[in-house]
Design goal:
two-stranded antiparallel ribbon; 2 strands; elongated
């Protein structure tokens, strides 16, 4: 039964060559654009994650106790008491390539007329 349908499909393809070629080209062009766009989107996704890690959050964050509850205000009174010691201990861990302290704080820039956060 399967052989019958394959023979019938083959005859139909060869009988309507122009329609077969147009259908093949339409599927090929659609697949080409799908692969291009999928590759582009995957690259953008990967790059955005790498930028977030490299420029914003890094792979690991260490906070002082109580900081996380007040993180929206970016409190300066919740800094690590022994930041240098903590940094030295992190750098001693095998596989750590680099470690650096970061301090995020809020500020206002004002020129007397305009004010920016």
């Amino acid at each position: 039964m399967l052989r019958y349908f394959l023979t019938l499909a083959g005859k139909n393809l060869w009988r309507h060559k122009r329609r077969t070629i147009l259908t093949f080209l339409a599927v090929a062009v659609g697949l080409y654009f799908f692969i291009i766009l999928d590759s582009l989107l995957q690259g953008l996704d990967r790059q955005s994650i790498e930028n977030l890690i490299n420029l914003e959050t890094s792979h690991l964050r260490v906070h002082a106790p109580g900081y996380w509850e007040e993180r929206e205000e970016l409190p300066l009174n919740r800094l690590l008491p022994d930041a240098e010691e903590t940094l030295a201990r992190i750098q001693e861990v095998p596989g750590v390539q680099a470690a650096a302290p970061r301090l995020f704080f809020m500020a206002q820039i004002n020129n007397g007329v305009d004010e920016l956060p």
